[in-house]
Specification:
- With about 325 residues, the protein is α/β, with parallel strands linked by helices.
- It has two domains: about 150 residues, Glycogen Phosphorylase B (Rossmann fold); about 170 residues, Rossmann fold (3-Layer(aba) Sandwich), CATH 3.40.50.2000.
- Helix 7 links the parallel strand 9 and strand 10.
């Protein structure tokens, strides 16, 4: 068996969720001793796509007569792998599939979703092709704490005091930066802690705007190189999702593997992917998110990191590779 694993965004941004998903799939196939290619015009037995931007490129695979698999809703923090659009009007927020994402999935042979609620969302949104739930794989070895040089990379790169704890938040940069209040208020009350917000498609005007109301210990940055981002995870005491839009499942799984305490907004996650007070602390309002962050930093609430790590250990590369091979084999042989 030979698999096309395709994700080649035109932009020159550093590795982010889509590329990490691609690398995880390749790593799982290597463990399973299965050949793969990234060349759309190569010969292969099954094709696996990760981005709705490749709506027309799957036609090449379909013309070859091979099954086409699409992974949807795994990398929503990455503009190049994002399947969703969001709108906010009169205080009401709506989430819906990009039209090209829907067209692409309805061309595919099979769609993969990260959890049951994501699968139901796709069905309700008009996806008519079969959908199977496959939790994203994770290379646990990438989050091994024994490499002190990798862990210290964050402090060297940003020239920070390595004796200070880190709260890491991810999201996106937009005109209103909804949800950022939770992070700003926590940072104001803990000047002894570093707060970093990492987002895609950074805008200098937006950063200048929010920087005027943010304390000096809160920093805003664009997507950084994979090694630096991993170092941030290895150092983060808390991993926050302060925004309202659905976040990338891949980044959540990685934070779990890095033993970060997850504190997330309810609307930013699929309802069945995390359990409140078991694998994360989940809240609806900014005030509650702020309080949870501060309480955890002050050891007033228990950690959920152990149970979260046990859960994410089930998503190891070998297990992920076995799932993919079963799926690919079934599609090829039917």
């Amino acid at each position: 068996m030979k698999v096309l694993v395709y994700f080649q965004p035109n932009s020159k941004r550093d590795i982010f969720e889509g590329a990490r998903i691609r690398n995880t799939i390749k790593g799982a196939l290597e463990i399973a001793e299965t050949r793969y290619t990234s060349n759309l015009y190569d010969s292969y037995d099954v094709a696996h796509f990760l981005s709705p931007d490749d709506e027309f490129k799957i036609n090449v695979a379909l013309e070859k007569g091979v099954p086409v698999v699409v992974s949807a809703l795994f990398g929503e923090n990455d503009p190049a792998a994002r399947f969703l659009n969001h709108k906010s009007k009169d205080g009401k927020r709506s989430t819906f599939l990009k039209p090209k994402a829907l067209r692409m999935m309805n061309k595919a042979t099979l769609v993969l979703a990260p959890c049951e609620s994501a699968k139901q969302f796709l069905i309700d949104s008009g996806v008519t092709k079969p959908i199977e739930v496959v939790v994203p794989g994770i290379n646990l070895a990438r989050f091994n704490f024994s490499r002190t040089d990798e862990k210290e990379l964050f402090y060297r790169y940003f020239r920070e005091d390595k004796n200070k704890r880190l709260v890491l938040a991810i999201g996106e940069y937009s005109n209103n930066m909804e949800g950022l209040t939770a992070l700003i208020n926590a940072a104001r009350k803990r000047e002894d802690v570093l707060f970093y917000y990492v987002g895609s498609e950074i805008s200098k005007s937006i950063v200048n705007k929010v920087s005027k109301i943010a304390p000096k210990n809160l920093h805003f940055t664009t997507i950084v190189h994979d090694d630096i981002y991993r170092s941030m995870l290895l150092n983060a005491t808390v991993f926050m999702l302060p925004g309202y839009n659905l976040a990338g499942v891949t980044s959540i799984v990685e934070a779990m593997a890095a033993n970060c305490q997850l504190i997330v907004r309810k609307s930013a996650i699929f309802p069945d992917f995390l359990k409140n007070e078991k694998t994360a602390y989940i809240a609806e309002f900014s005030e509650t998110l702020t309080s949870l962050c501060l309480d955890y930093l002050d050891s007033k609430i228990d950690s959920t990191t152990e149970e979260a790590y046990q859960k994410v250990s089930e998503y190891n590369l070998q297990q992920f590779g076995n799932q993919l091979l079963t799926i690919y084999g079934t599609l090829i042989n039917r």
